Amino acid sequence: MRRLSRFLPLMVAIVLAGCGKPDFSDAEKKTIASLALSALPSLKPDTTNRFADVPAAAALGSTLFFDQGMSRDGTVSCSTCHKIDRQFQDDLPQAVGVGHTNRRTMPLAGVARDPWFFWDGRRDSLWSQALTPLENPLEQAGNRTAYAHYIKARFGERYERIFGPLPDFSDMPLNASPLGNDAETAAWNAMNDAQRDGINGVFANIGKAIAAFERSIEPAPTRFDRFALDLVTGAEPKGDAVFSKEEILGLKLFIGKANCVTCHDGPRFTDNSFHNTGVPPVADLPPDRGRIDAVAQVEADPFNCFGAYRDGDAGACGELRFMVKDAPQLIRAYKTPSLRGAATRPPYMHAGQFSSLDEVVAHYAKAAPSVEGVSEVRPLELSDRERAALVAFLKTLAE
């Protein structure tokens, strides 16, 4: 019995080594700690939306998020594409609302921390982003005047308790928008400035309510976070926090040789920036040049940070004021998506070009040239074992 107890520590060490006992340099540990969810700072106030942290606004926003009445034909809501049980995305290569879009639905966990929104960053606040699908003819396909009438008819008292009195809609058309069909744009142009401003104010508040709800959607801890905590604190890993040799190799590659962490950094595994990575276009979809075309769109948006419907002062508009407007690297550049939960939500890339993480890793290893502009990716000499290890590590971000 004494001999058995003498060898027990050695046996445990052998078992742990077989399971991939962590062996990282101090620099690697520092990088890993920076990726853990525990390193995520507190959510900053959104000074452009004074209702961002008002519970009643978030409650109304939640109602509107799931309300199919917030669409032209009463069949589509925000939750049609952002499904609550699928990390607020839809598992489709391209989102489908009233029509078929040309982009993949992005998940929403931690979205309130982004400086830019959509794959190309064509909106600069969470509340202005929330407005865009409402009038997009392929998504919810409504018009802002119809939404204002709908809010008054169905949620008037709730709205006024939060945002104050609604405008008088008695002399306003039922359907009007500067982005609508010919009849709707004509009706919009026939309205006076005060009427248009009143409708825009209500429309902006719809976005601010939805954004208040979306601010509550945060990423959940995963196996990686438990592993990282044990690694940093020196605790003995237990349960699912024990990484296999393959997962450890994948993590080392991610922060080292494969250089994934250059763009997928921080606790959300994204630099919130835009990159051309040579992702090919999808046949039969409209031309899509990414960030280069979004610059003009965000500047023209009346609900952007410089617009009349922003709360607070222009001190919050640094991203918009100093954004890069015309540079070769913007061509076919798309936002770096968060990798948290990515393993369980194929397909991948801005239009669902790749069906599996294996295909994604193979794309980066090959580094094919971009069809337009210049890809930032350089070929990686990864063995089959290393590619599989990278995928194994990525799965720890979704468990």
From TrEMBL:
Q: Give the location in the cell.
A: Periplasm
Q: What is its main location?
A: periplasm
What are the residue boundaries of the Cytochrome c domain, all occurrences included?
234-398
Q: Does the keyword Nucleotide-binding apply?
A: no
The molecular function GO annotations come to: peroxidase activity
Source organism lineage?
Answer: Bacteria, Pseudomonadati, Pseudomonadota, Alphaproteobacteria, Hyphomicrobiales
Name recorded for this polypeptide: Cytochrome-c peroxidase
Q: Which UniProt keywords apply?
A: Heme, Iron, Metal-binding, Oxidoreductase, Periplasm, Peroxidase, Signal
The cross-references to InterPro entries, in alphabetical order and at most eight, read: Cyt_c-like_dom, Cyt_c-like_dom_sf, Cytochrome_c_Peroxidase/MauG, Di-haem_cyt_c_peroxidsae, MauG/Cytc_peroxidase
